[in-house]
Amino acid sequence: MGEALIGPPLPNTKRLSMGMVDMQFSNYLLKRMLLLVVVLIGASILSFLLVRIAPGDPARMLLPPQASPEDIARMRTQMGLDRPYHEQYLMYMTNLIHGDLGFSHHTGRPVLEEFRMRLPATIELSVLSLGLATVVGIWLGVMSALNKDKFIDHAARVVSIAGISAPSFWIGLLAIFAFYYLLGWAPAPTGRVDVMVKSVQSITGLMLVDSALTRNWVLFRDALSHLALPVLVLSFSFLAMICRLTRAGMLEVMEQDYIKFAQCCGISRSRVVWRYALRNAVRPVITMLGLFVAQLLGGVVFVETVFNWPGIGRYAVESLWYLDYTPIQGFIIFMAIIYVVMNLAIDLLYMALDPRVQY
Amino acid sequence: MRRFLVLLGLAILIVSLCGACAPVTEEPTGEDQPPAAEPKVLVFGAGNQPGDINPLIGKNICAEFIDINVYDTLVGRGKKVSPEGYAMEDPDNVIPGLAESWDISADGLTYTFHLREDVRFHNGNPFDADDVVFTFEMLQANGSYATTFDELIAEVKATGQYTVDLTLNRVDPQFLRRIGTYNGCILDKETVLAAGSDVTTQMEWLASHAIGTGPFVLGELTTDIARLEANPDYWAGPAALDEVIIKTIPEAANRKIMLEKGDIDIARSPGTTDYADLEANPDIDLVIRPGNSKVYYFAMNTQYPPFDDVRVRQAIAHAIPYEVLIEAVWGGDKYCPQAHSLITSQFPSHIPVYNYEYDLDKAKALLAEAGYADGFDIQFDLFDVPAYRNCAVMLQAELGKIGINMEIQPMAPPAFFQAGDAGELNLVVNSWWDNSADVVALMRKLAHTASIPSEGNWAQYSNPAVDQLIEKAEVEMDPAVRIAYLEAIQEILAEDVPYAVFGEGQIVFAANKKVQGYVHYTDALFRFYEMDIDTGQ
């Protein structure tokens, strides 16, 4: 009963028939899907043109510096770079529709296979880092807001500033030095698993999931121990931002009349804070979370380099260094998909959180 | 809700910390290891990933490490002991590989190779002359040095099941050494042809697969690890090592601490700031060997003012703070000896002719003589890596003292090479080397008119006298005469100074003292067949 009195009166959705609401919503989804297709086509054209405008010759980059101009010309023909642009684009799009993202010349493997090998590593790292950052960040933010200017608020502020200012690769190197080299707690930064571990049966590509599914608990522990340090380092900066945002939102919401009214009604403080206030305060955090996910999935190059993590970020940067067209194009398209999907997810999440939002 | 969040957060934290505390030494294979002999595994920490391992291409040194151990070449490179007491390549000696013996015709143009019989590829296919012919045809048509080999080789044909006749277009005293490295890796014709019907597919297959006759079999190859398992049926007997793991560790700092902790046995290219620490460590050897003709220099574009005037170039040569530069960038003469010629000091043809000393007064005087008493503005094109960046900054400071305003333009590698190929680079710092340590080829690339602009002659130096000397040296079979030509070339280049040389690049790596058997080859490749680990017990 208390819930219905909080906030402005809800629009009476029961007047509309369920069918109409559904249709409205499914129209909305359809529009967003069409938008995705449009964005993808735009992204593919843009990425195609951009890499070709960039200075440098990818054939040149693939061969040693001592290679002769004839060898470079032959490599260009082999890579299909001597054809006119529209022909190259058509070839690329035809392959794309068939799921062929092209051949990554600097690694010697098809781009799709490279993505398939590297994306699970990035996903595992991202999900765990963001999960940890969100849980701890929100909790710390709420605690800071409730205990404004007390010790925990100051402590959280120090942590936040450190997390936002300190560069992740520096924290990473320090962490490796402290926890691996000096203390011997963390394993060697060899990537996802120990060097001696032979390749394991890959079902999803996510080490934790695969080892749990195959009941290989020794591998599970090894994967987890290798994940610990990079997850902690990566979550640090996101945690800081989430904490600050939550704190700011909570401070504002806790001053609202309906919160005071709820407290007057005798609703427990814990319920007021976590079920009512947080839900209203967390909207900017959701927005940022969407962006964070996109950022993480795009790969965090520094952490991947420092921890030798075979993720997608390092691959993207290497492709730029070698001016390897196909992975760069593939990566841009992939990021376009991620951003569109994340935006849609955020909008849907708003809808779930806030009954006032309707599409 | 709150309690749930707290518990969830704590759970994640605890689980990850527990995982972090997993003992490092545990063997996570979950299978029973035979308790008898511990397999001898060498873990090699490389700085970049292998990527494309096609031996015809020679993508990067990590790929070449794999190729030279998984494939065999027709001939190998001989060994000797250096005056300092370490094992190194004997440049005058070539040893049998897949070719048991060979005859060279009187005119030096035709090589007849007698191949080993009863050799099999890793997949069981027999090795014979067809594979050799196929490999050389692929090299001439599709390798990264295709033009060079195509110009060099007239014809390759099988004259028997185990004999191959290879005819050259011109005499090449270095030919056998040229095919004794990664380019000469013999492929299995059947397997490559079965991989695809067109060359592109075959090359793509070769980029991530390797079936050779070599002492190691390529096991797992992923984005950052390559496992080489000893070939038990190798024709020269199985290797001492059971397995070699080549692991990509991009951060030099990580390679160093993992070596110190014993998680890897060899760390390639440690950071220059770590040299002192590694040397001081009693369990680690910092191995420093002369580079394979690698020389560092500042190149000046001789086609455009102001560098078209030799006096300006000489002025620049006098403005380089040689000792301070080497100390700052590499940590001292020990790690990068000062260069006194484009040809580095380990070669018999080296003469220390380049003797420009750091002397700002002389530099100013030369500039005034050339008409630039007030100095000038110049753009420095920087290939943006830390060592070169430091060199550029130091040069900028010194040139400022003699009135030259140098602006540093950092460039990403693709843009840099594009500018180089178009002949647009003004002043750069760079290094060059020849894979077979063929100094005549080095001269051809750096100083011959035909190499302008995109074959390496970024200084766009053109001197008919030098061109002639290079051409004569290329076909001269008598080493003494060849050395005479090279000495003449060095003298002219030191006088004309299109390249202000300052450092001799060294091969530096750090290894655990228990690693044995490293031989220093001019192609800088590790041949793991000769290496072993002293397990002590």
Largest sheet of chain A: 2 strands, antiparallel
- What helical percentage do the residues of chain A reach? over 70%
Strand content of chain B: 15-25%
Radius of gyration of chain B: 26 Å
Main-sheet strand order of chain A equals: 1-2
Q: What does this protein look like?
A:
- The complex is a heterodimer of chains A (359) and B (537).
- Chain A is built from 16 helices and two strands.
- Chain A has helices at 2-5, 18-53, 58-62, 69-79, 85-97, 111-146, 151-165, 168-182, 207-213, 217-254, 257-264, 269-281, 283-297, 301-306, 312-322, 325-353; strands at 103-104, 109-110.
- Chain A has a two-stranded antiparallel ribbon with strand order 1-2.
- In chain A, α10 (217-254) runs antiparallel to α13 (283-297).
- Chain A is globular.
- In chain A, 42% of the residues are buried.
- Mean pLDDT of chain A is 84; it is low at 1-5.
- Chain B contains 17 helices and 18 strands.
- In chain B, α3 (129-142) packs across α4, α6 crosses α7 and α11 packs antiparallel against α13.
- Chains A and B meet through α3, α4, α6, α8 and α10 of A and α1, α4, α7, β10 and α8 of B.
